[in-house]
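Worked example

This section walks through a single chain of length 168. The input is the sequence exactly as stored; nothing has been trimmed or padded.
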Amino acid sequence: MGGMKRYFEEGFVYFVTTVTKERKEIFRDRKLCRILLITLEYLKTIFDYQIYGFCIMPDHLHLIIRPSKEFDLSFVMRMVKGGFARKINRIKKQKGSLWQARYYEEVVRDENQLWRQVEYIHQNPVTAGMVVSPSEYGFSSFGQYHGISNSEGRVLEIDSIYEDVAQA
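Given that input, the structure is written out below as tokens.
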């Protein structure tokens, strides 16, 4: 039985969570985290989406994303998940999906909700007991928000919320 079609609202920001297949903790491998960030940045250039926040956890990814008018969220997520899986499968000489088929998305309706979601994803490694402070975790957008130059997350350049809110 197929899933229900997703309904997307053009121009909205989405809070997205996508989980690895069987919740395998593939992102304990820093190299895979870097490859995912490079994939997101590369596809961002092609499909013109905006990223306002992200956090790579051992078995899932959080994104705060605004798809372009031309490419909806479903298409972007298919490209991100498929593009990453193809790279990793080629490197590891394996086949198959690395992600669960579906993902969770929630429309972010206002600036307050946007900031709550940014805070949530930045606190996720702390809540999971991986670090004491979000500044200790390199694979999130926290470093970019707080001027931490040694953050590994800088590979994926986040877009300015302030510029986007001013345009709305």
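What to look for: The longest helix spans residues 73-92.
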